[in-house]
């Protein structure tokens, strides 16, 4: 014979079990929601950091390319006139501007540097020779998304350095000298959280040396 009391206990257990299962599922859903909220914040911060990092890398590549193009252009030797016809501020700056246009610096989207900054032979803060970085904070633009261009012309042997050259030499006396173009940018961050860590801007600096070409 079946025990009526045993049947009642089993019935009560069947009624309690679904209730406990539903409560457990509700707790699991709440836990999952909290975990998702926390992980979403972390993922959002990573995404913002990657966004600014990718922008910085984009500008860095273009700044280095512009510095290289300016130095290469200024060092070129014209065999017909037997002189370095592009070894002057205006011609170097023209090459730099053309290279910077690829990064959006067209005077409309982003301001172009107007001229070579005075004092082109920068003094590195660590005593490094040949005007290489790191540079003093005062040499960087005060506003973000601006670029300062410095050119240093070093005469063969290193005895004479000029931070500006208004006109190109009419002979090949600068042959085997050095031209150094430095590009200093105050890169503007766009994500508020990254700004709270690093400030409104990050200094970017790139410079390129080229040996001034010529023939004896």
Could you give the count of β-strands? Answer: 4
SSE series: HHEEEHE
Gyration radius, to the nearest Å? 32 Å
Structural class based on helices, strands and sheet pairing: alpha+beta
Walkthrough of the structure:
The chain has helices at residues 4-75, 89-100, 192-198; strands at 146-154, 161-162, 178-188, 201-211. The chain is α+β, with helices and mostly antiparallel strands. The protein has one domain (53-211). It has a 4-stranded antiparallel beta sheet. Helix 1 (4-75) packs antiparallel against helix 2. The N and C termini lie far apart (122 Å). The mean pLDDT is 84.
Helix-strand layout with pairing:
Layout: H1 4-75, H2 89-100, E1 146-154, E2 161-162, E3 178-188, H3 192-198, E4 201-211
Antiparallel strand pairs: 1-2, 1-3, 3-4
How would you briefly describe this protein structure?
With 216 residues, the protein is an alpha+beta fold.
Please describe the structure with a list of short key phrases separated by commas or semicolons.
216 residues, alpha+beta, four-stranded antiparallel beta sheet, elongated
